[in-house]
Structures are given as C-alpha cells and as structure tokens.
Fold this protein.
Amino acid sequence: MASNNRPLTGLLISLSRETGIPLSTLKLNARILREFNLISYGTVGEKRLAEVEPVGNLVLRLMDAPESAKIRLYD
C-alpha cells in the first residue's frame, strides 16, 4: 500500500479481484495492520488515502532483507 490515489476500500476491492481473497478477509487484516500502526487509512466520516506508516515501512524492509542480513535494533 505504497503511494496511491484511492481509499483503502478501492485498493482492497482490486486486490480481492486479483487474488480471489474475500473482501471481508482483506478488511479484517487491514484493520489488524492499522491496530499495529503498520498502515493508516480514513473512515467513512474522514476520507483519507491508505498509506504505509514508518513502522510498516521498516517491516517491509526487514521482509525484503536477505536471510543472511544481520538486523540490529537499538533503544
């Protein structure tokens, strides 16, 4: 969910059509990702585009890192 010009529902509908994953499943997982502050999106009353939060970007980078990479986290 990088840079886009659609609200979350539009993105999830497209993803559902492309993958065959039920829209309800995608919405549930989007809500879980938002609860972990990995993504953000608006509500019915507050229209906003969906976007990946900084922590979500970190997770994406960690997932793309080679298995041999050493990740160091500091306080």
